[in-house]
Amino acid sequence: xxxxxxxxxxxxxxxxxxxxxxxxxxxxxxxxxxxxxxxxxxxxxxxxxxxxxxxxxxxxxxxxxxxxxxxxxxxxxxxxxxxxxxxxxxxxxxxxxxxxxxxxxxxxxxxxxxxxxxxxxxxxxxxxxxxxxxxxxxxxxxxxxxxxxxxxxxxxxxxxxxxxxxxxxxxxxxxxxxxxxxxxxxxxxxxxxxxxxxxxxxxxxxxxxxxxxxxxxxxxxxxxxxxxxxxxxxxxxxxxxxxxxxxxxxxxxxxxxxxxxxxxxxxxxxxxxxxxxxxxxxxxxxxxxxxxxxxxxxxxxxxxxxxxxxxxxxxxxxxxxxxxxxxxxxxxxxxxxxxxxxxxxxxxxxxxxxxxxxxxxxxxxx
Length: 366
What we know:
The structure is a single chain. The protein has 366 residues and is mainly alpha-helical. The chain is 67% helix and 4% strand. It has helices spanning 12-39, 46-68, 71-76, 78-88, 117-133, 139-159, 163-179, 184-203, 206-216, 227-237, 251-254, 264-297, 301-325, 343-360; strands spanning 5-6, 98-101, 104-109, 114-115, 364-365. It has a three-stranded antiparallel β-sheet, with no helix packed on it. Helix 10 (227-237) crosses helix 12 (264-297) and helix 12 packs antiparallel against helix 13 (301-325).
């Protein structure tokens, strides 16, 4: 049998996929935001500059730092990281710090830029759950802290009325739990409980119920509740094979809401067509396969579960955003990883990529 050795270099395919995300994100934000900036009397690169200064550049810097931090550090201090992220979720309600956008209070005003604690909570939950489930304790003793983490996350996100992030974190948590070789009966019970809880949160909240009913019948009120999804479908459908050209879509100026954030995929699809969407989806598929391959080859169970968590995070979030824009899921306001304008989510996605690259140097191969 051949000797097994640790790789010392980061995974090249993962590096390529991260670079593709950054390039596509820069192109998408530039094309979607330049006309909007000019219309409001700003420089055509105003939104791109903000994304670079508040998202991509600090994200790359912190991602590099995250890469050079030993993986044992994340395991050792995962509980403290999670508690810090959990407490920070309630800082959004402190007068003078809170920022209310679109009727939701989910941001902290740091004067220089706004910060969304739920993005840190995603990474913190992955690290802490991986630490819990990679321990040598019997599965029955892992189940209680696992459920308690999910309850705390649900409480924090319920207070912020952020159901979409709860769905994403719950999905990540379930995949991590399943990957920890836990009995199927526990997995089924957790999935059923999660579906019932999310269903109740939709049913008893009028605006969520309205979104769900609009999802079931988007053509019922095209000028009211169904306006956003209908405009998104028009934009995507009009892209054709090759698209109308970057920066050429007039829909972002007049009819499609949140062109640089929630709806950026619809604008990207209209301007680059089927070919552009194909390359974007191919980049996400490449990232997903690479992340799960790294997890499969990881010799350490904590590293394996963190890799699964990060891969699941990017994959689930991309699926939720694209599915919402194409009418396969209700609209949620979930950012498209690496592509949607926004500093906080970009920073923590790149930090997570730094950790995943570090894990890729610790895998064993023949």
